[in-house]
Amino acid sequence: MTKTDLRQRGMMLVISGPSGCGKDTVADLLGKDEPFIERTITTTSRSMRPGEKNGVDYNFVSREIFEDQITEGHFLEYNEFVGNYYGVPRGPVEEKLAEGKDVIFVIDWNGARKLRMAMAEDVVSVFLLPPSLDDLRKRLITRGRDAADDIENRIKQGKIDITHYDEYDYVVVNDDLESVMRRFKRILRAERLKRYRQPWLKDIVGDILKGQKPSPEIIQAASH
Asked: Could you give all domains of the chain from N- to C-terminal order, each with its CATH number?
């Protein structure tokens, strides 16, 4: 058995939920706490804003280049928002999964659908719910990024988003951040133990049926 065979394939962790429910906070904390998790870098056709860096905040390209990349099948999912394109490149994600890294996507339910259509077996989806709409409104007000009308529009959109909760593998209520992080880490542990994410199992079973003890390398990989 080769060293490559012992590498566990990563997963695509999709986090969705209404605006203001804490998706980015959870994703950022997981990225810091979990050594095998990475965030995706979205490609966009919009102009770079002050303080942003190409290849760090976004991959910035022209609208023409973005549309060429759409034609070439470059994206796992993409959408157009306020006249600008946003999309997740397929190549870097597939490379990270093959390296055994988990990739986080903070996207809406429509984007989650597209990812499932593209790579269903690799997707693990979690919908993050606020404790209540009042609590969601308070969070939107507290973060101070939106005008009053915009907040109410986000609440209206949030109600629509919440109706799609049953399309997800897991649903977590963001009532307490520490508790939420524990639940997300349990989800990751359980998903990593799924049979099809452990490529060495075939070799372990084969050795057992032959009356042999699996090699220490395989046992170590299975215990990771």
From this structure: 4-40+101-193 (3.40.50.300)
